[in-house]
Amino acid sequence: MRTSLRHQTAPQPATVPPATRVYAIGDIHGRADLLRSLHAQIEADAAGHAGRRVLIYLGDYVDRGKWSREVIDVLLDEKPAGFETVYLMGNHERAMLDFLDDATAGPMWFMNGGLETLRSYGVPVSVTHPAAVSPFAAQAALRARLPARHRDFLSALTLTHVEGDYLFVHAGIRPSVPLTAQRAHDLLWIRDEFLRSTRDHGKVVVHGHTISAAPEERPNRIGIDTGAFATGRLTCLCLEGPQRRFFVTGAHADRPAP
User: Fold this and answer.
1) Could you tell me whether strands 221-225 and 204-211 are parallel, antiparallel, or unpaired per DSSP bridges?
2) What whole-number distance in Å separates Cα of residue 186 and Cα of residue 36?
3) In the chain, where are the structural domains located?
4) Closest alpha carbon to 25 in 191, 251, 215
5) Distance of alpha carbon 241 from the chain centroid
6) Which residues contact 77 (CB under 8 A, 6 or more apart)?
7) Max Cα–Cα distance, the chain, nearest Å
8) 89-143 pLDDT, tens per residue?
């Protein structure tokens, strides 16, 4: 009696759509200098690509670093030419919007880098004494100084984006929950349950939010928050077909944005 052999097919590598090159940038956190440097690297790399070019920002543009206002100006005014751009919301943008709507959200935001953002908009607060800052006075001052186009930019940020076999999101997803049923809070804030999960999520999740010394590649996720505000390493993931590459800026430079 003959027996048949069962052959297991190796899983196919994740890909992006044909003739498409995707660049995803991790958490910027007020480092306009590093963003400009990474933009230059991306433009040089993409110069020879004749197909579709997509640039995805994973959120956390503000807080912690010194130049949050400048980062948003760069995102609005200095986008590399010839790219489709996608701007995702991070938990820090959500916190900033919450503060603009409700001053009582201020103390928590202040302790998580919001004071640096206030100072970048010219609000005179001490970053060393957050408890001494009046949230109501700071809210009024920020509302007066925040350009309308910055408020519009923050309000228009999206939570997720899909390219082929990849899902792009700020923090991650809740494992076992369908991608179409994810809660905004998890997409912006989740850590341990997502980071520890070995489940196949249906897409490879590209995320920031949780700092690692170098990009983290796992079968089900890729993390690219390398702590730019403190380390000087702002990371970009480049995807084309089944290929993956990384660009990382250099060492920390304690100098104002150009």
Assistant:
1) parallel
2) 30
3) 50-172
4) 215
5) 22
6) none
7) 86
8) 999 999 999 999 999 999 999 999 999 999 999 999 988 888 889 999 999 999 9
Could you report the per-residue pLDDT of 161-197, keeping only the tens digit for each?
999 999 999 999 999 899 999 999 999 999 999 999 9
Phi, psi of 60 (to 5 degrees): 60, 60
Report the distance separating Cα 23 and Cα 32, nearest Å: 18
Beta-carbon contacts of 231 under 8 Å, excluding residues fewer than 6 positions away, are: 252
- Would you state the structure tokens that stand for residue 254, as one six-digit string? 């304690």
pTM: 0.92
Helices (H), the chain: 32-46, 68-77, 91-101, 106-109, 115-120, 135-145, 148-155, 184-189, 192-196, 228-231
